[in-house]
Amino acid sequence: MSVAVSVLVCTYRSGGMDVLLGSLAKQTFKEPWELVLVDDVVDRRGCVLTLAEDLGLAPRLVYPLHHPGKMAAASVAENKAIVNASGELCVWLCDYSW
User: How far apart are CA 42 and CA 27, in angstroms?
Assistant: First the structure.
């Protein structure tokens, strides 16, 4: 099945993902879409993935390439999201948008 839209989210924040994921779970777009999540907060990746799955979402979790202990630049995370997207269109959501 081809994906119409890739929803791309790059995050390094510890909060707010519950609001973002909850909103995505309630969306009414009828075409197939995917969630590509580039998460730079190593300590909480499992929690975010569990929350997404509990909401019926199946995100593709992508890890930015960088040196351990150093935050990746936003452009690195954004490029990783695009490379991992398979949709005909890409839509960016900010991790701080409520």
Answer: 27
